[in-house]
Amino acid sequence: MNAVIDKAAEKQAFENNKLHKRLCRLVGQAIGDFNMIEEGDKVMVCLSGGKDSYALLDILMTLRERAPINFEIVAVNLDQKQPNFPADVLPAYLEKLGVPYHIENQDTYSIVKRLIPEGKTTCSLCSRLRRGILYRVADELGATKIALGHHRDDILETFFLNMFFGGKIKGMPAKLQSDDGKHVVIRPLAYVKEEDTERYAEVKGFPIIPCDLCGSQENLQRKQIKAMLREWEKKHPGRVENTFSALSTVVPSHLMDRELFGFADLKADGVASPLGDIAFDEEPCAPPAQTVTLNLHRD
Hints:
With 299 residues, the chain is of the alpha/beta class. It is built from nine helices and six strands; from the N terminus they run H-E-H-E-H-E-H-H-E-H-E-E-H-H-H. The protein has a six-stranded mixed beta sheet with strand order 3-2-1-4-6-5, sandwiched between helices. Helix 2 (51-66) links the parallel strand 1 (42-46) and strand 2. Helix 1 (2-34) packs across helix 2, helix 1 (2-34) packs across helix 7 (194-204) and helix 2 crosses helix 7. The longest helix is centred in the first third of the chain and has 33 residues, at 2-34. The protein is globular.
């Protein structure tokens, strides 16, 4: 019996280590692809108390030890004065980690509850208030980058929300300039699946703190989109992955944004192009034409 238990524990440890390595690889890849963190940066990691921001802080601390560049990390939590918020949890956790941190106390909860009618979505106002406060704190702390814990699923959900409800092809970029033009915001978890942050939170035993604002709203449009993507993942493996890949493989000449591509000035120049109009030749979702591979290497 003990041998069976030991083998199961060994297998679990192997899987946990594999998950940690995958997260480090994906976060490192995103940081490299978008040049998110540079020599001498002071990265302000926004820690909400949710699984994703805990995972972000944990992985960034690991990568900082291995990185060929030097950068600082400071964890920042905005205590919005939500009822029953356990104010001692994050300071105790961060003290144990030994990471510099700052707790910003601002009663945005009362503002949101006062201004948003009962039953209406609070996310938009809450997000704006939070954003302004975090920009100010970044200035005060001398942070050069603001790191948020949004992952791949957040990015995809935002894309579909903008398309279905906003009439825009717009997502959530991995790196952007802040609204006030003074900061660079980064999302190092951009390539990470939510199921991996969920599992990692269980493995690490993060002290999760639920949100009484957004966590209490069950009929949000984002939750509908999340359910749609999870259903796709079950019924159509690969569809979600292809959609995410499409966000970084954009062909402006085959969309309809006149600001993005000069359709008005487009003329035939007599030069063949692989990106030309193939609409009459094959369906967009048809399998690729069969090709013959020649072996050019002699034995």
